[in-house]
Design brief:
seven-stranded mixed beta sheet
Length: about 280
């Protein structure tokens, strides 16, 4: 209990490196528990379909990415950015792409390697920070796919700048992210209760929660989350140099425990091109 109290007290002073370390451990734990849908690898049937050209990937919970948002995948260099878990990477590799998966969690990356071995696919896996792609030279990739994961970094702008740097001219970035409005509300209330506006945006697990909530958060092994404004999510892409060419919205799977989703979509996906 004293250790937990100390961890909560130091939570407000966490550096970006501390946050990455905490979230790495939290996602490794999520893989071990096996209940988070984003940690469950795809099955052989999905890989077989992708080999026939009938691929489908999710950047948000329900809707699949439109196939016409990506060029012909055969031979394309694809970076799956903060996208471990044995899902998007193996499907794109089975569809003919040359895939590199970067993720902060070793256990999530292990899921990709497991599927690759099972299906005789070639996938490179790199443990790293989505906001610092120093290991990749400029203009290394034709496509970057980025599912809902920048909610786990305190500053999203470096993510867009680095994505722009490592993408080739004419390349495509497809990215899913949270609608920040969802972070306004108090989800600690029972699911049947009325929605209550509680948090000022931008939201941060580090700064917005009470001491008691932080205790429960750490005790439950949850990763730390941060909201980002649409100005930084969409405007941040254009500020980095991208041209937005497509956008759609999606919702949560479990609306019983996410009541705002009964009234509005909770996720956004954009397609952007590096001119």
């Amino acid at each position: 209990m004293q250790f937990l109290q100390k961890a909560v007290t130091s939570m407000a002073n966490k550096t970006p490196k501390d946050i990455r370390t905490h979230n790495r451990r939290a996602w490794d734990q999520q893989v071990e528990w096996g209940t988070n849908p984003w940690t469950i690898p795809v099955g052989p049937e999905e890989i077989q379909a992708a080999r026939r050209g009938e691929w489908a990937i999710y950047l948000t919970p329900i809707k699949t990415l439109p196939k016409n948002w990506l060029p012909d995948l055969c031979g394309k260099q694809v970076l799956c950015l903060a996208s471990g878990g044995g899902q998007q990477g193996p499907i794109l590799a089975a569809a003919g792409a040359q895939v590199t998966v970067l993720d902060n969690s070793p256990r999530q990356l292990a899921q990709d390697r497991w599927v690759a071995e099972r299906e005789e696919l070639t996938i490179a896996t790199v443990e790293g920070d989505m906001a610092d792609l120093f290991m990749f030279p400029d203009e290394s990739f034709d496509i970057i796919e980025h599912p809902v994961s920048n909610v786990f970094v305190p500053d999203v702008l470096p993510v867009w700048r680095e994505a722009y740097r490592v993408l080739r001219h004419g390349g495509v970035l497809v990215a899913g992210f949270n609608n920040p409005v969802g972070f306004l509300f108090d989800y600690g209330l029972p699911p049947q209760a009325d929605l209550v506006v509680r948090h000022k945006l931008p939201y941060s697990d580090v700064k917005s929660l009470s001491m008691e909530e932080k205790k429960r958060h750490l005790a439950d092994g949850n990763p730390l989350e941060f909201s980002h404004s649409l100005e930084k999510q969409i405007g941040g892409q254009t500020a980095a140099g991208f041209v937005i060419t497509g956008l759609y919205e999606d919702n949560d799977r479990d609306l019983e425990n996410n009541p705002l989703g009964r009234f509005m979509p909770l996720y956004i996906v954009t397609r952007a091109v590096k001119p």
